[in-house]
Predict the 3D structure of the following.
Amino acid sequence: MAEIAPLPSFAAIIVAAGKGLRVGGDTPKQFRQWRGRPLLRHSVETLLEAGAQPMIVVVAGGADDDAQQALAGCKGYRFVTGGATRQASVRAGLEALETDAPERVLIHDAARPDLPRAVIARLLKALDNHVAAIPALSVVDSLAIAGENGTMAGAAERDAMRRVQTPQAFRYPAILNAHRRWSGAADAGDDAQVLGAQPGSIALVEGDERLKKVTFAQDLEQPAGAAAFRIGQGFDVHRLERGEELWLCGVQIDHEYGLAGHSDADVALHAITDAVLGAIGEGDIGTHFPPSDERWAGARSGQFLQHAVHLAREAGCGIGNIDCTIICEAPKIGPHRAAMRAEVARLAGADESAVSVKATTTEKLGFTGRGEGIAAQAIVALRALS
């Protein structure tokens, strides 16, 4: 489940100035397509949605056109020209933040596009007690020390080893000063090494296998055996009561009765949201937005659908089509169908032609037939983003 709690304020730097030679081709890998969007765009959008402000994207000199094309339509970031090494590029990004210095900064590699919000939350939380925090994973394989001529020279203790990922989180003054003081002859492996802090001051937080670095051409490809499409179904019911607002598919309808629920009780959007979540195996709407949480009291259900679509994109899926049926005796859905289709398409980031909204009755039978409530069912097809 994606973390949805508000995050502390933070700035972010995404390093996208490398050449990416091992992936092959003439175009740097950060501007190549991955799951239907440029590699760089994934982490930029994720960090902007998480609240990164300011956001610095460090690119190589002469790469502005490629970077602008990759981020067309995104807002809230600015470009900085990087240096000859990754460390020089990071320093350029840090220096660009000094005028409006943040308390916390995340430094991330564009080559790690699948960035879970939960990792961001863990990193920022760790800065409450540490000067820095890095995501790390345990080593599960045995380790060998390589000797001459491709022979084994010894063994390493894997229990003491960790695989380090990005983003890495820092208190801004500490990492800026560390980069300014750096005197190493070679480029540092990562920014935690540049910090050179005392033992215990850099927290290790749980990383995520999804943060795998895109390195080779096959990393940009759809995984072998991955489903070309996924299908999910959703169903929801809410009762009708006087004095409540009536929202269906994100459209408010003037009616003497409205739907009762913890949120705005938009039964149609709830069914569609559950269908999207079901298609990617991410539980249901109650898992992500529990009715026991007062933050969602009276909330617009459109944000629930947008959250589900975002999770689908993180899983490598885009909307194929949405088919929703509203079951009620009243009100009449026909006069509102066009507005409903348009709003669902907007919320899901889909073309309106991929959205169907229709209605039926139960011929006066059951709770919907007696006018006690409204039900909705939805089927959603997701397509794999190559």
Observations:
- The radius of gyration is 25 Å.
